[in-house]
């Protein structure tokens, strides 16, 4: 939990990078941009430290000694206290399968090395602008689904459903534009904005994950409908 009276801007960014020079470079540029930074060379103690300090964002290398970045992201998403904290991967692994695996695990952005420090700062800022505290207070109720945009929570038949930041943003966007079909390109522009490493395939991955969380029968969805050759639409169940 965030400490009482502690502002979001005072919460640190956790950077996990095993190359000391690159870690120092990231820390320098993020601090110059006004962020408080905690830097780590391994992922060994990250979860315990994060539970103590409630970071506002994780920047994770993938190829870390011991626990790699993918496993660390998996543990972050499985922790009730950390699950909504944004995660950015910063890695020399550049294949599409690596990016897809990162997004399937729940990352919010994927930056490849070598990288521009200015671009890193810009993309950190972009991800943080999507953080829960920026949502206006309103509740969307559709069928058995309830989307609370102020607390960034989702319930289905009264039971809480855990989503990542990007999953929530996608669900919220579609639900607030009911009965309108959006192409994958339109959803990328609306939900991911400047996250240029996200592919059209990533949209399909996020829709599939949302269906598994909110639909009674993910194979026959009542909310998130596919329009073959076009895109996706949010429908009110009949």
Task: Describe the protein.
The protein has 238 residues and is of the alpha/beta class. Helix content is 37%, strand content 18%. It folds into two domains: 8-131, Response regulator (Rossmann fold, 3-Layer(aba) Sandwich); 135-234, Orthogonal Bundle (Arc Repressor Mutant, subunit A). It has helices at 20-32, 46-53, 69-78, 96-105, 117-129, 165-175, 184-192, 200-214, and strands spanning 13-16, 37-40, 57-60, 87-91, 109-112, 139-142, 145-148, 153-156, 159-161, 224-227, 231-234. The strands form three sheets. It has a five-stranded parallel beta sheet with strand order 2-1-3-4-5, with helices on both faces. Strands 6-7-8-9 form a four-stranded antiparallel beta sheet, with helices on one face. Strand 4, helix 4 (96-105) and strand 5 (109-112) form a beta-alpha-beta unit. Helix 1 packs across helix 5 (117-129). It is globular.
Spans of at least 5 consecutive residues with low confidence: 1-7, 133-137
The number of domains:
2
Separation of the first and last Cα atoms: 39 Å
Mean pLDDT: 87
Helicity, as a percent range: 25-40%
Q: Keywords for this structure?
A:
5-stranded parallel sheet, disordered N terminus, 4-stranded antiparallel sheet, single chain, Arc Repressor Mutant, subunit A, 238 residues, Rossmann fold, alpha/beta
Compose a concise summary of this entry.
The chain is an alpha/beta fold. The chain has helices at residues 20-32, 46-53, 69-78, 96-105, 117-129, 165-175, 184-192, 200-214; strands spanning 13-16, 37-40, 57-60, 87-91, 109-112, 139-142, 145-148, 153-156, 159-161, 224-227, 231-234.
């Amino acid at each position: 939990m965030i400490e009482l009276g502690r502002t979001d801007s005072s919460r640190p960014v956790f950077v996990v990078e095993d190359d000391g020079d690159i870690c120092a470079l990231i820390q320098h540029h993020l601090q110059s941009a006004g962020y408080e930074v905690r830097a780590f060379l391994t992922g060994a103690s990250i979860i315990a430290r994060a539970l103590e300090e409630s970071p506002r964002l994780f920047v994770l290398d993938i190829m870390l000694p011991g626990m790699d970045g993918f496993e660390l992201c998996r543990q972050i998403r499985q922790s009730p206290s950390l699950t909504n904290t944004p995660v950015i991967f910063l890695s020399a692994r550049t294949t599409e399968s690596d990016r897809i695996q990162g997004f399937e695990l729940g990352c919010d952005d994927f930056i490849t090395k070598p990288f521009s420090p200015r671009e890193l700062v810009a993309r950190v800022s972009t991800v943080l602008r999507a953080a829960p505290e920026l949502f206006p207070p309103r509740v969307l109720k559709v069928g058995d689904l309830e989307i609370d945009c102020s607390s960034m929570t989702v319930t289905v038949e009264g039971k809480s459903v855990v989503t990542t930041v990007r999953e929530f943003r996608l669900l919220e966007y579609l639900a607030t534009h009911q009965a309108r079909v959006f192409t994958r390109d339109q959803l990328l522009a609306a939900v991911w904005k400047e996250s240029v490493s996200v592919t059209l395939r990533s949209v399909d991955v996020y829709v599939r994950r949302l269906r598994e969380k909110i639909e009674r029968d993910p194979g026959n969805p009542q909310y998130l409908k596919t329009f073959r050759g076009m895109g996706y639409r949010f429908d009110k169940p009949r």
